[in-house]
Structures are given as structure tokens and as C-alpha cells.
Amino acid sequence: MVYLTRKIEFSASHLYHNPAFSAEENQRIFGKCNNPHGHGHNYVLEVTVAGEPDPATGMVLDLKELKEILQREVTDRMDHRFLNYEVPELAGQIPTCENIAAVIWRLLEPKIKRGHLNRVRLYETPDLFVDCYGEGNGASGHAGGAR
Amino acid sequence: MKLHLSRRYRFSASHRLHSEQLGEEENRRVYGKCNNPYGHGHNYVVEVAVSGPVDQSTGMIANLADLDAFVEGEVIEPFDHKYLNEELTEFRDHVPTTENICIEIFNRLSRFPRARLERVRVEETGLNSFEYTGESAGATHE
User: Fold this and answer.
1) pTM score, whole prediction
2) A93 → chain B, closest CA residue
3) Three-state DSSP state, A12
4) Which of A47, A79, B69, B95 is deepest in the core (most CB within 10 A)?
5) Active-site residue A132, yes or no?
């Protein structure tokens, strides 16, 4: 098995607010992220696909194809968007790094036709990131599965 | 689908690699420059990964404010700007290699009540790092 990782960046704004909570609760739980005007990040996304290289091409999957999938599914949807209001997949959810990573996993997973999606890692900042694994990937903490 | 939330923290500390179980000559041979009796220091980076169900009312595995406060109390405050050999009782009997620092930090953070600790990764410098996932990978840490 070979693991191929492609990285992209997108910039977007968001805010954390749960209408079921009072204004004070929202402020206490979400702190600065509850600013009603929102704030933004430069997100970095690493997508890892696992598979056996095709003997004819030597590729797990064509990077150009992966690049196009990421452009269509992630960049076109999320780049320079206000995630709360402009990304329907996040409607009704708090756009935390956890929830965005899970949405990205669900968008990408059915589009990867060669190999399979192994890990989605989404950095909100260089010091905060979320790894998303499928049920079968063991979630050992490594793109690559078992140690 | 399984999610891990990871956060990076920093502390700076000094240490000396010297084993009481080895002679002076042997210590110098094994640890080289790191055996300097005056010690030396590093800017350590600690990467902490936790997992758990995402609370849909907050969208979070764990509130970062809680995780930050816990790591601050258990690791940053006791380790930052300290001489690890002398100021942490755990390293009176264990050489404060980054392996042992990583295990000690994991054991401290495994008590975090709001999510399950998956992994601790410690960078001693930008060029070497160590990871620990508990006694056996995949085991439940209670």
C-alpha cells in the first residue's frame, strides 16, 4: 500500500454561535470565536489517499485528478467564503475544525475512485488541526495505519 | 468516521543526559555533548491529540479552553524554564531523554477528563521528534 498526500490552502471566515444557548453561554463557551462579525483563518488541508500503484502508470491515482476534485469539492465551495452562511453542507452546524474536516471527508470520500481516502487533516492554524479517518483506517495517528 | 483533535504547545527547558547506572566514561561515550555536567536546553514542542464524540451543540470534541488550561497546569507550568533533572521528581530516577519526557507528558495528560488522549508527540528540535500512544497502541487509557 502506498499513501499519497496532496496539500491545498483556502481562506475563509466563520463564527461560533449556537442559537439554543443564551448570549452569555455562547460567550462563555465560544469566547472570541463568538464575535458576531466573524473572523478568518488560512486553512491548510492535507488529503491522503491509499492504494496500490497502477502497474501501467505507476500512480495510485492521477494527481491532476485529485487536484481537480479538491478544487471542485473544497476550494470552490469554501475559499473566501463565510462558512456559516455560504456552505450549505455546514448549515445548522458550528463550523469548528472538527465539523469542517468531517464535511470535507464526506465530500471527498465518494469522489476518490482509485485507491481510497485514508485521512483528511485540516489545519485551522499551525498549532491546531483535526485528523479525520474512515471507520476502517484504525486511526493510529499516522497516515499509513498500523505501526 | 473517527476524529482526532491536535494542538501544539511549547516550553523551553534544560536537561542533562546522565545515567546513574553507567560510569563517567560510559556516560560520556553514550550521551556525548548531552552529558555536559552544566546541562543544556531546548525549545520543546508538544503535540497533543485527543479523540471523542463531537458534541453537536458546540461542534467540538473538547473545548480548547479546557484542553489549554489542562496542558498549561500539567505540563507547561511545571516544565517551562526548568532544569528537568532537578526540578521534576520524575526525572530524579529517569534520564530526561525526549523519550522519557514524552512518556511522562502522556501519563500526565491521560488524566484529561473531557476527551480520550490518543497521542503525545514531542519535538526536541525541529529535526527530531518522539511519539507515544500509551502502553499498547489502541489500548484504552483510563
Assistant:
1) 0.90
2) B59
3) strand
4) A47
5) no
Contacts of residue B117 in chain A, CB cutoff 8 Å? none
Prediction ipTM score: 0.87
- A100 sits in which H/E element: helix A97-108
CA-wise closest residue to A76 among A89, A91, A61, A63 = A89
pLDDT tens, residue by residue, A86-95: 999 999 999 9
Read off the amino acid at residue B28.
Answer: R
B124 is catalytic: yes
Cβ–Cβ < 8 Å for B12, B43: yes
Q: How confident is the model at residue A140 (pLDDT cuts 50, 70, 90)?
A: very low
Report yes or no: B116 and B138 within 8 Å, Cβ to Cβ. no
